[in-house]
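Risk register update: the risk of archive-format incompatibility is retired. Evidence:
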Amino acid sequence: MPLFAPLPDRPVFDVNGTEEDDKVLDAWQEGATVDEWREYERTGVVTVSMHVKWWWRRTLRVLR
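Archived output:
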């Protein structure tokens, strides 16, 4: 039995999976959704609102 409950927003991916699994993990670590992360990789631009959303999502995990 784990000490802590799993995070409700944890990603579902395979550790030795595909490139798509890597994107899912990268996005989750940064606090982004997969669509937001793809947009960032496509354009190379991170707006202030994206920074704030991503920071807040990462902070929520720590506060839980």
